[in-house]
Amino acid sequence: MVTLGRLSEEILLLLSGGRIGAGTKFSIEEVRISICQVANQLLKIEMLTADIPMGNVIPSGAAIGTYEKNLVVQYKTKSKTTLPCFPLKLPRNMGVFQIFDPANPYNEFIPVELGQASMIQGNPILSNLSGFTGYECAGMDVLFTKDITTPNTPVYVTMRLVVLDFSLYGDWDILPLAPDMEFQIKNEVVKLYSSEPIADKTIDSGTKEQKGIPLKVQEQP
Questions:
Q1: What radius of gyration, in Å, describes the C-alpha atoms of the chain?
Q2: In terms of pLDDT, which residue wins out, 196 or 63?
Q3: By mean pLDDT, which of 33-42, 46-55, 137-146 is the weakest?
Q4: Taking the complete model, does pTM exceed 0.90, yes or no?
Q5: Angle 121-122-126 from CA coordinates, rounded to 5°
Q6: What digits encode the pLDDT tens for the residues 63-102?
Q7: Which positions ≥6 away from 159 have C-beta within 8 Å?
């Protein structure tokens, strides 16, 4: 589980060469702000605007994040995938805002309440959902009403989940990040603050290709 506080400290350690001291030129507050900016950009965060039933409340700062490349696997006679993180708990399971085929964003899957899929399947009029595929959420599992996998070809879906703008998370709140996103965010934030070129060759004025070249312009690591 990734938190903003842990991520900030790990990135600051990387920027400080493994030791955070009084002479560290970066502040943890700066790093924290950069993490939020990078995460918002990575997830294509957009503020949530939706009509909901009277009496229900959407938290201030609720936003929609886009999570790509969620692998679909065969499950019994149907198929399933896994939520990349826990979305906000909202009325009518609106936390899982949208699931669709990335090759055709207009081909959305239809949400059904947990337990209703079996009822729909038993109704000859409703069972085909007008040609669409439905899904229901059970914990972290997303169960589809049909088998949408393809033999020998990986099938992915894109999810849009309701989370908070990252600037609203506290230091020890669990961030809504997929496992691979932690590494991406670390890399992007370190790039923002790194001014030195990445090493590719050790300076050694005694090597043949470095002889006769001023030290300042020799190839550096």
A1: 24
A2: 63
A3: 46-55
A4: no
A5: 60
A6: 999 999 999 999 998 999 999 999 998 887 889 999 999 9
A7: 66, 67, 70, 83, 84, 96, 98, 99, 142
Kindly tell me if the per-residue pLDDT of 213 is higher than 60: no
CA–CA dist 36, 177 (Å, integer) = 12
- Asked if residue 43 lies in contact with residue 162, where contact means CB atoms within 8 angstroms, the answer is no
Which among 50, 152, 29, 54 has a CA at the least distance from the CA of 94?
50
DSSP assignment of the chain equals: --BHHHHHHHHHHHHTTT---TT-SS-HHHHHHHHHHHHHHHTT-EE------TT--PPTTEEEEEEEEEEEEEETTEEEEE-SS-----GGGTTEEEEEETTEEEEEPEE--TTHHHHHHT-TTTTTGGGPPEEEEETTEEEESS---BTTB-EEEEEEEEEE-GGGS-TTSBP---TTHHHHHHHHHHHHH--SPPP-S---TTSGGGTTS-GGGS---
**Are the CB atoms for 34 and 12 separated by under 8 Å?**
no
Structure tokens at 202: 């050790």
**53 φ, ψ (degrees, to nearest 5):** -60, 150
Q: Note whether 46 and 39 are within 8 A (CB).
A: no
Q: Rounded distance, CA 158 to CA 156, Å?
A: 7
The strand pair at 46-47 and 155-164 is best described as unpaired
